[in-house]
Fold:
Amino acid sequence: MTIKRFNPIILLAALGLTLTVQAHSPKEHMTDAEQPNCKSMSNMDHTKMDTNDPVMQAMMKQCMKGMHPNESEQEEAQLDPQDDGKRSAEQHSEHQH
Amino acid sequence: MTFRVYFKSLVITAALALFGGGLFLYSGLYPMGADVEHNRFTYWLLETLRERSVARSADAIEVPPGLDSSEHLLSGGADYNDMCAGCHLKPGKTDSDFTLGLYPVPPNLTLAHDEHADADSGQIARRQFWIIKHGIKASGMPAWGPTHDDQRIWAMVAFLQRLPDLDPEQYQIITARGETNGSSHH
Structure:
């Protein structure tokens, strides 16, 4: 009986906890997300573009997502073949005294 | 005899300094408003305290390999735009309400600073990681560690290394979280 009375409170607390966890996830920022202005890429000097430069690769990934959503993963793999190795960086964490 | 006089003078001087310091502290005379700058001595004192503390704390941090990747730039860029650009600016902007109102003024991270020119890239990355994760007391810089994991913070550090090279168009494309509608390119 007592437990039943507290059920709504427990549910609200659980919901609050879930929202807190989600509060800083990247998806939270997607609600009013700005779209990349890929038109500006066409005005750039293509002769000065270095396809090995991570900045250029990042821009191409951003703009390809919308154009060829199915092909984007293949393109990403071709553009950034070292990404698998680089993802090992994600495993690193801070080591302090 | 001479030593006793010397010791007595030392104790009296220390007691007077302590009393004077306490008197000044409780008088409320020091201006705490952000629109009044510290005097040069206070600024030097606080800056030295901050830099030495950050350097010591960040010294043991291990920088992960392969920071300069497009994936890190995309993840870190979007977070930078959402969380940092208001204070630390974006390419093409020279000030914001925060940079005009905060004291100390947040550094403009779109410019290549030479104040840490003697530091190697590893030291700079470690310093940036530590500051993003732990924040700086009484400066307006929050600690992002409680809400962001190390992976996301390292991605922001990776983005910061390339930020001074970006023009406004590149910045906009890299930091936008939304997806393109396929209206451009080629």
About this structure: Residues 83-97 of chain A have pLDDT under 50 and may be disordered. The two ends of chain A are 51 Å apart (CA to CA). Chain A touches chain B through 46 residues (CB under 8 Å). Residues 2-25+34-84 of chain A form one domain.
